């Protein structure tokens, strides 16, 4: 069996009925020797096509970027989508949902608003954490070590307003943590403002970030921030209730 056929057979072993597989199950379903299956799975994990959850393997977010199984991997999407639709109707802004993948934000949902606005990234694409409102929220409410990791690397500017000083980034993240919402004008695209708020699941774990993007000149940012907080709190309550 050719190498690419073996790799495809491993990916094809996953389905909506079998979203989590052990190495033994992958070996059995594909007919590959366990050693061969282990080598392929390790390569797929390194590349991001698979992720390991304790003793199981699951489809990784990298697969979302190439348009295959990753949308199904985000298990909260169906519960969150009605709230995003409500937010889009209330604000007229582009409304997006992002999740954290290692040290980047990945956009997994996008509802187009009534206002024409340029976007820094589209569905399935990634945003740097230091240069975006959604990233500031992830740094404020994500894993404790994430901010140190980002600040240990060069903060590459995206626009002239990008934060490139680690001390300044830490101060901004602290303010976001206190306010519960990030309001960032001209962060990734000049002339736009992004308003981002965290979504929590059970045990106050960060499940995602809701993001509004609109033209800065025609946006009441204080009202957008209140709306983002209100709807994100309702989403978090719904997720926690569903998991209790």
From TrEMBL:
Query: What Gene3D superfamilies does the record point to?
Result: 3.30.450.40, Winged helix-like DNA-binding domain superfamily/Winged helix DNA-binding domain (1.10.10.10)
* HTH iclR-type domain segment(s): 1-61
Alphabetized, the UniProt keywords read:
DNA-binding, Transcription, Transcription regulation
Give the matching InterPro entries.
GAF-like_dom_sf (IPR029016), HTH_MetabolicPath_Reg (IPR050707), Tscrpt_reg_IclR_C (IPR014757), Tscrpt_reg_IclR_N (IPR005471), WH-like_DNA-bd_sf (IPR036388), WH_DNA-bd_sf (IPR036390)
Entry annotated with the keyword Transcription regulation: yes
Domain of life, per UniProt, equals Bacteria
Any idea which GO molecular function terms this record carries? Answer: DNA binding; DNA-binding transcription factor activity
SUPFAM superfamilies under this entry? GAF domain-like (SSF55781), Winged helix' DNA-binding domain (SSF46785)
**Any Pfam family hit:** HTH_IclR
**Which residue numbers delimit the IclR-ED domain?**
62-244
Question: What is a biological process (GO) this protein takes part in?
Answer: negative regulation of DNA-templated transcription
The protein here is known as DNA-binding transcriptional regulator, IclR family
């Amino acid at each position: 069996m050719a190498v690419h056929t073996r790799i495809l057979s491993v990916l094809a072993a996953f389905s909506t009925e079998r979203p989590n597989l052990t190495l033994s199950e992958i070996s059995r379903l594909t007919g590959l020797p366990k050693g061969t299956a282990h080598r392929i799975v390790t390569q797929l994990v390194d590349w991001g096509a698979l992720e390991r959850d304790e003793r199981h393997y699951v489809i990784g977010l990298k697969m979302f970027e190439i348009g295959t199984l990753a949308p199904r991997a985000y298990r909260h999407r169906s519960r969150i989508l009605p709230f995003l639709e409500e937010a889009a109707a209330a604000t007229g802004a582009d409304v997006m949902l992002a999740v954290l993948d290692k040290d980047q934000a990945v956009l997994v949902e996008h509802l187009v608003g009534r206002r024409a606005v340029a976007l820094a990234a589209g569905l399935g694409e990634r945003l740097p954490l230091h240069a975006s409102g959604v990233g500031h929220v992830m740094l404020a409410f994500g894993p404790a070590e994430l901010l140190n990791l980002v600040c240990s690397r060069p903060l590459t500017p995206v626009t002239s307003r990008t934060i490139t000083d680690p001390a300044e980034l830490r101060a901004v993240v602290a303010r976001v943590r206190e306010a519960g919402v990030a309001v960032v004008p001209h962060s990734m695209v000049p002339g736009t403002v992004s308003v981002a708020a965290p979504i929590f699941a059970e045990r106050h774990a960060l499940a995602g970030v809701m993001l509004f993007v609109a033209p800065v000149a025609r946006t009441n940012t204080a009202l957008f921030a209140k709306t983002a907080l209100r709807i994100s709190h309702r989403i978090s309550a719904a997720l926690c209730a569903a998991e209790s």
